[in-house]
Amino acid sequence: MTGIKMSFSAFLVVLILLTGCSVGKKYQRPQITAPPEFRSAPAGTTSAASLADEKWFQVFKDPQLQELVRKALVNNYDLREAVARVEASRAQLGITRADQLPTITSSAGVTTERFASTGSFPIPQGAKQTRTFGEVGLNLLSFELDIWGRLRMATEASRAELLSSEETQRAVVTTLVSDVATAYFHLLELDSELEIAKRTLASREDSLRLIKSRESVGVASTLDVRQAEQLVEVAGEAIPAIEQNITQTENQIRLLMGESPAPITRNLSLIQQEQPPSLPVGLPSALLERRPDIRAAEQNLIASNALIGVARAAYFPQISLTGLLGFQSNQLSSLFTGQNKTWQFAPQIAQPIFTGGRLRSNVKFAEAEQKIALVQYERSIQTAFREVSDSLVQYEKVRDVRGRQEKLVGTLQDRSRLSYVRYRGGVDTLLNALDADRDLFDAELRLAQLRRDELVTVVQLYRALGGGWQ
After folding, report:
1. Looking at the domain assignment, is residue 469 inside a domain?
2. Buried b or exposed e, range 275-313, using 16+ CB within 10 angstroms
3. Residues 355-369, mean pLDDT to the nearest whole number
4. For the chain, what is the domain count?
5. Domain, as residue range, for 360
6. pLDDT class of 8 with cuts at 50, 70, 90
7. pLDDT tens-digit profile of 264-283?
8. pTM score of the predicted model
9. Alpha carbon distances (Å) from 178 to 26, 61, 206, 253, 469
């Protein structure tokens, strides 16, 4: 008997030692060589500080835009779906982690039997016709000893998937903030276009009345009238198209906010929007820790690495335990006495013998999935570097073009004014005045678009640097 106890104790010691074993490889972050600085970064902008460290409401200071973003962060459908996916991943982690723990259930039952007295089987004098059995017990359902780390690695994979879903949620927040800001700036640009079109239409209608009055006295020709009418119709035609775009953009913003189509209140105009005084970009190496899409890709890589260990563990024996501890008695009054105690302990070992190559294929499949996750992780990093560089060069060039366009608009305004003065004075033709008016209209529309693009490049840079989700 003593030998049996010693053998059982030795068996438990061996199991405890083996439980620390694992056939999976510990995750190590791949070596990524980050450039010393972002391409196209202006001198003095590469430092530890970054524009992305600012909260979104510190970057976009229009009160109305801030209100739109706040509503979108509460009601947006994509973000609500991302939150639900995080909750699902958290629940899945709880399910997977529970497999590492034993499942114990309790049971109790009472059975009453009544025996019939017949001629063939009479009940003896004084015997009871009914008999009651009772049982109470704790059942240890099949509990796997995680000797090879299969369950631990499955839990690690689920935990990484949870973290990935949380990072994906943050990436959705970043995208949502930038989408709302971009749409809002586009809406303000359309407002500018509409104001320019209406002002130009009024000016051209005044010119048309002037030309018609000159025609009535024989100073202007019918051709002059038709040319002036053409410009009036061009300006008038632009207004409905701009109004259509305004309504559609408002509907787009409402959808981002999870609301039905409705007008959007504006506060500051396009030229009143405040831009950050500087655009520090930070260090490229910090981008790996800041951008949520990169962090989500790394968590996917961690999960796929753990799943390789899960697949490899299937080659080894699976040891599970089942047991029962309780009381059974045919008399309820003596159910819990020592002599009615019952127990059962049943260890089981299952070893794959022949699976037709399934286990090997599972390992190869998990390794292929890990390679895919590695490629996606590396690609997300290089994509981030490219997006930051693209945003930097776009901001620099758009800003330069916008400055030149402002000078061009000032020149064309002066040209248009002088052309009409010369025409009224009879020293120049109407054609030069109309050409100047047409060029000015196109240049003013282009300037409004460049002002919008300059604001949007700040939004794009902020998003590329990983800002907006804090």
Report:
1. no
2. eeeebbbbbbebbbebbbbbbbbbbbbbbbbbbbbbbbb
3. 91
4. 1
5. 20-112+129-464
6. very low
7. 999 899 999 998 888 888 88
8. 0.84
9. 37, 14, 42, 12, 10
